[in-house]
């Protein structure tokens, strides 16, 4: 089918064409009976008022937490000079990607789920799935870069040679590369209306991959993205953090000062591992369900296909607000910076003033050690 804004009728279509539309619309039980009473087979649990209220509450909580948390991360990295480290720039990049999902994807996805058809126009039809694919790819690339940089610094005792300028270059390349990988989600998309009978007409935003007798390009793309966007990066990240953890576990501290610094490295690594685990766990059900749906069209026959898809999508979207919570819980620098931002204060040391010049000198020394050894979080000199 070509891209069109006109009306499409299926009265004379063959069974293969009907099944093709059924698969692309994700409508359970799409058969000849739908032409007689189209609204009957379209009923599912997502049309129940109580289910819709739960979905509205879930999406609103995710959007609110994501907007507040990720905006706060970006704010403290930009505002406080002591937070402007290379890895914090990467973490801010994660926050930008999550904000993209919170603002451009989730509200429109919720509206689409509640209405049961696409009433948001052709531009958003192409833009919303593209933005989500772009954001997910940027996130996983950034997590991989962080893991590899820490692996190089900790396992091989190398100073981080990534300057701030290089980090911005890496972030730019990540966005450009992710934009190219996600582009099929916008290109192979159709916005059209179908008229099932004189009384029932619906507007559709659906995937429209080129079809050949043997090759299913949609399935090929889904499997490729699963490998590129999920499996391969997580294998690389897991390998990096396993080696890091073994190195830190076998560490023999020559002195109390170095031992304190070593403990901070372990805490930071633990936090970053938690970020990756949360991302992987949240997205795993959604990726599996998408892959199974592409490989076996019988999954689309499930009466509650739409509800299951929506629940897995909600779980995946939880990753968009989880990171700021992890930073505030597991990292003292972020927790202090968040509190400072909430109190509208200009300096990090305004919350916890130093008790003595000796303690301040010790903190300054630790901060210099962090910068020299490639630690991702420079301890603020006055915190």
UniProtKB/TrEMBL annotation:
This is Neuropeptide Y receptor type 2. Residues 69-327 form the G-protein coupled receptors family 1 profile domain. Keywords: Cell membrane, Disulfide bond, G-protein coupled receptor, Glycoprotein, Lipoprotein, Membrane, Palmitate, Receptor, Transducer, Transmembrane, Transmembrane helix. It comes from Anolis carolinensis. The keyword Transmembrane applies. One of its GO terms (molecular function) is peptide YY receptor activity. Gene3D superfamilies: Rhodopsin 7-helix transmembrane proteins. GO terms for cellular component: non-motile cilium; plasma membrane. The keyword Membrane applies. It is a multi-pass membrane protein. GO terms for biological process: adenylate cyclase-inhibiting G protein-coupled receptor signaling pathway; cardiac left ventricle morphogenesis; outflow tract morphogenesis. Its main location: membrane. Belongs to the G-protein coupled receptor 1 family.
